[in-house]
Design a protein that fits this description.
The protein contains 10 helices and 14 strands. By secondary structure, it is an alpha+beta fold. The structure holds biotin.
Length: 341
């Protein structure tokens, strides 16, 4: 369904959620326990009663517990955990993330959407969020399991006034924001595996894929894609040894809406700090909260090549230094880091 506000511009997009479904959700969320008749909802959001009924079914399919039926009216018992743009935007005023939030009940990959939006000239701060991804992508060609409504799958389009040489710190910015959001939400103390995997009890709970379009001296835009495992009760067998979810670590479910708000607020704070003060406070904060900055024995894998060494601090740009067993220091620009024995 095309966006109601600017259909021409979004015509090529595969179905961001209609703004009027968003309005319906907000109306129900603002009146929990009140029964609102189908007729008043239809009038309020400007659609036919049959459309209200159809959209209520869409919301139910997405896990929103809407009570009632077309004759008496509808109500929900508590604010639903759908990442609805209106609900998000009202808590993000004063940040660049409140102006343009695109929501999908389903899309292939929020990073793909954000990259297309970037090419289309969409503004800094545009947020693309999905309840489910059918082709979620991870780093190094991996996929990202994106089951419906249990995780956060979000990509933020940014237009930082920096060169590609400065981009390692931008990667750290996203990891720090995710780490602090998860710490606030759980009361736990997450680790960050360089550059930006957030870990709880040695297992990955959040991954970040940053993609860019740039020239030699200037980044045009970056799509910062963040995936957080939130309310999964178990991991697929092949991931159970290396991945976890907030719920699996805390034993309770978490509001994805609250967590996403925390994430975007921390991202706003760290991003502004990076743009105004440079990489140094970001690198320093990373060193404070990550056990991977210094003195950790790691394996670095890049394609088919790999070696083992001990982390030896970060360069001022955010690049990781690793000392090989023969004493040579390597600067790690890309590659996968894992803990080694
Ligand atoms: C990783 O391999 O650690 C990065 C995972 C990134 C997953 C997120 S989910 C939202 C965004 N859309 C994608 O297709 N990938 C990123």
């Amino acid at each position: 369904m095309p966006s109601a506000k600017s259909p021409a511009k979004n015509a090529y997009l595969p179905g961001p959620t209609d703004r009027r479904i968003d309005a319906l959700l907000t109306l129900l969320a603002e009146n929990p326990t009140n029964v609102i008749s189908g007729a008043s909802i239809a009038k309020e959001i400007g659609v036919k009663r049959q459309t209200v009924w159809r959209w209520i079914e869409t919301l139910r399919e997405s896990g929103v517990n809407v009570k009632g039926h077309p004759r008496s009216g509808y109500h929900i018992e508590r604010v639903p955990d759908v990442l609805a743009p209106q609900l998000l935007a009202r808590h993000l005023r004063g940040t660049p993330f409140s102006k343009r939030i695109l929501h999908f009940f389903q899309t292939e990959s929020t990073n793909d959407v954000a990259m297309r939006l970037g090419e289309n000239g969409e503004p800094h701060g545009t947020v693309v969020v999905a309840e489910r991804q059918t082709a979620g992508r991870g780093r190094a060609g991996h996929s990202w399991v994106s089951e419906k409504s249990v995780g956060i799958y979000v990509t933020i389009l940014v237009r930082p006034p920096i060169s590609p040489m400065q981009s390692p710190a931008l990667t750290l910015v996203a990891g720090l924001a995710a780490r602090d959001a998860i710490a606030d939400e759980t009361g736990l103390s997450p680790d960050i595996r360089w550059p930006n995997d957030v870990m709880l009890n040695g297992k990955k709970v959040c991954g970040i894929l940053t993609e860019m379009q740039a020239e030699l001296d200037r980044i045009h835009f970056a799509a910062v894609g963040i995936g957080i495992n939130v309310n999964q009760s178990r991991m697929p067998v092949e991931l159970s040894g290396i991945a976890t979810a907030l719920r699996m670590e805390t034993g309770r479910t978490h509001s994805r809406l609250e967590l996403l708000l925390k994430l975007l607020r921390h991202l706003d704070r760290y991003y502004n700090q990076f743009i105004t003060e440079g990489a140094s406070p970001i690198v320093q904060r990373f060193s404070e909260v990550s056990s991977y900055g210094e003195g950790k024995r790691v394996r670095i894998t890049n394609g088919k090549a790999s070696f083992v060494g001990v982390t030896a601090g970060l360069e001022s740009s955010g690049i990781l230094r690793v000392q090989r067993d023969d004493g040579r220091i390597e600067s790690i620009i890309s590659g996968t880091v894992s803990e080694a024995q």
